[in-house]
Amino acid sequence: MVTKTMYKKIQEFKKKGYLKSKISKEMKIDPATTAKYYRMSETEYREYLNSLMYRDKSFDQYKEDMLEVYECNDYRKLSMAAVYDYLEEKCGELPGTEKSLRNYIGYLRETNQLELNEKKRRYMKVPQLPMGKQLQVDFGEYSTKSGLKLYIFTSVLSASRYKYVAFQGRPFTTMDLIHHLLDCFDYVGGIPEELVIDQDNVMVVSENHGDIIYTGDFSYFIDEMGLSMYVCRKADPETKGKVENLVKYVKHNFLSIRDFESIEDARESLMRWLVRRANGKISQATKRIPLEMIEEERKQLRAMRNSIYRKGSLIGREERSADDNGRISVDASQYSVPEGYEKKVVEIYTTQTKLYVFDRYSGEQIAEHTLSLIPGKVINKRVHNRQKSKSIETLKEEVLNKFSVNKWQEFVGETFKKYPRYVRDQCIDALRCFGDDVNNESLDQALGFCLEHKTLSMRNLYDTYMYYEGLKGRNEKDILLKMTPQLKAVTRYKSDIRVAKRDLSVYKSLVGIIMGVLR
């Protein structure tokens, strides 16, 4: 169907003697349509319009909703998919397809019930990339009709056109960007090889002729995730066509015909729209549905990694049981946990280089270790074994009264004087090294040796004690017999040594030289 303006133009060409084929070519309309209106008089055309106006339309019951949408958008030309999606969300199942709705909107325009302010848009085709190669990211802002300011994070996988969008109610920071990227990786099911992202100050400190200097947190994040970065120049949409279009797509197809009063409502509606519309309809670029293509692209994405910036989340945590010594096993190495967690279950979270340990019930972080590259290594932190539940005075008293052996209190007192900053650690070493089954004779010998040679510390005392314990039951004769083979070897070695002999004249000449120098 043609508009009144087009009908008048056809009739003007007819009066000028134009053939129907020429009119069709000039007006770029179908020849059959040209012929239909070429033969139609003005009276017939008015009757035809009246018949259209009163013809039963399946979308008539939604006309007021449609007109309201266009009125709220200053009668701009809207995406038919967006209008259809809005009606479907608001009213449920619709009586026709998008094509039927397009025809009905056309009818409203033809009958002058709807007049639009049209603007032409230009699009540019961008090259296709391999699956799993690239994720494009951009930001936007939008104010709803009720005054709610939304800050928009958008991302799209370049191959499958699978999209992820998030809203927040404040300007973006570096940490916001990192958390949105982590959520995006979860949503798409993996990590791409590279990011194409706008040059925003939340991630870029400065640029020196293309040498990008990232913020500290973002630099650590891209290293942690193993990402290659491609940063677009500011106001350069040619380098990020897909995601630039996505920002506009979100604004025009989702936000322009909806109003939200809270960020929670906006997010809830957005997630439904992503599944139903943004990823659920055929992409004009690929001619396929992104929701189906993502299954292929996920096979090329890298597996998810834990991040230091998500250690507070329950996602990615595992349970471990601490042993009697207060250690947990992670990748064949052992790591200490604080006092009081022996034989208890804790939660761990590992990144590429770090281990974080959390209380199972409160979720509070209780320990942090750098992961060992050597399997089988035992990693202890001194602070974990300091028995903070006991005061230093209590520990000192317990250690001083542990043994009645002569010189014990003297040794303990001298050790505390030498290591005043490590009294608690010395007490803990004493209680751990010396149990109730200590041999008093060996301990007395060890105390005498350590006091005499000033080798003060509980570790030194314990090593000396173990030496004297090893000598028990062995007399002097046994020791000499054990040393006999070694002494014989030394004797044989010395028997082969020959001392050089010089003539006495050599020494006389040397004395003569020295005396001459002295004179």
TrEMBL record:
<dbReference type="InterPro" id="IPR054353">
    <property type="entry name" value="IstA-like_C"/>
</dbReference>
<feature type="domain" description="Integrase catalytic">
    <location>
        <begin position="126"/>
        <end position="298"/>
    </location>
</feature>
<dbReference type="InterPro" id="IPR012337">
    <property type="entry name" value="RNaseH-like_sf"/>
</dbReference>
<protein>
    <recommendedName>
        <fullName>Integrase catalytic domain-containing protein</fullName>
    </recommendedName>
</protein>
<comment type="similarity">
    <text>Belongs to the transposase IS21/IS408/IS1162 family.</text>
</comment>
<dbReference type="Pfam" id="PF22483">
    <property type="entry name" value="Mu-transpos_C_2"/>
</dbReference>
<dbReference type="InterPro" id="IPR036397">
    <property type="entry name" value="RNaseH_sf"/>
</dbReference>
<dbReference type="GO" id="GO:0015074">
    <property type="term" value="P:DNA integration"/>
</dbReference>
<dbReference type="InterPro" id="IPR001584">
    <property type="entry name" value="Integrase_cat-core"/>
</dbReference>
<dbReference type="GO" id="GO:0003676">
    <property type="term" value="F:nucleic acid binding"/>
</dbReference>
